[in-house]
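Record 1 of the preview.
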Amino acid sequence: MVSSSNDQPLYEVLNSTLRSVKPEISDQLKLWFLYLKLFIDALTHLPSYREIVYRSVTNDLSDYYELSEKFVWWSFSSCTKSLTTLQSTKFLGNTE
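->
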């Protein structure tokens, strides 16, 4: 599909591709279409529900977003519905 070194995780290669193609669709992104179709099709078989989820970022971005707005996050990333999990040192990468 997309050539990459064996030690680079799939989500990193996909995220790099998703972030690099705006606004037009590049040939590089077209290589991912079958995989994304399979992934999205699998998601449609999961039960649907509304929930607030949290995503760890390095800066305070709260001034840029309103609670009532909907957002599209153009990447695959770890999220949680628990603030306790988000504040965990393991989640943040500090395993000291």
